[in-house]
Design a protein that fits this description.
Layout (H helix, E strand, L loop, with lengths): L11 H14 L4 H9 L3 H7 L4 H23 L10 H18 L4 H22 L7 H9 L12 H23 L7 H26 L5 H32 L1 H10 L1
Amino acid sequence: MNTPPIIGPLDGPELRDLARAKSLLENPRMAIRLANTVGSPLEKGFAMLPKGWHTVINKAARAALMKALAVALATLGQRKHAGSRERFHKLMAGASGGIGGAFGLLALPVELPISTVIMLRSIADIARSEGHDLSRVETQLECLEVFALGGKDTAKSAYWATRAAMSQTIKDAAAHLARKGAVRESAPAVARLIAQIAARFGFLVSEEVAAKAVPILGAAGGGIINVIFTAHFQDMARGHFIVKRLEAAHGQEPVRAAYDQI
């Protein structure tokens, strides 16, 4: 059976980039990678977590995203480094993950904001390496949006569904921040943005924490798991910003049509 031709304005190299983006965005869930690393089902890790862990994780995820948003608005537009430095950021996240491995859930409120900001900086470097302007508030919020990608929904349309769900929220938050500048979680537009991302990000944080709860390598194991966590979001960022780059050149509809036919 012949493969139908891809219709649209994208040339050969662009189609190859889009194919790479699709492969990254539709990779197996992070839980599979974590389970392969810890050598046992994540359900065992969930069973080891103390009572009330959901509340701790949800609070830590929201606080981490608020910190990442403040960092995004304050510093991302000033970043000039060439290249995406993905290995460097994995090493940094791995070092911070040692805290979680050594102290478990109690360290999460301290460790998660640190690792989230490290990941955000890596995401921003990837965005810039794909030609995006980090001085734009919209681009800074799109970097934050990456934390909502690759969550519990594994359907092939999940990437586009997540973007559609986040689109208006990002526009509202960008408009608010352009007017006010300061980050206030009490502002409705900011609160909606953080809540939407946290709903997806918190799920992945839960899997990360469950993996760390399985007694494997102690602090070193926490570092390894953080490297996997960071690599996941680097993959999501690369795929996302390749798609956004192609959309800037050709529009969303032709890129979506080509993506669906790959």
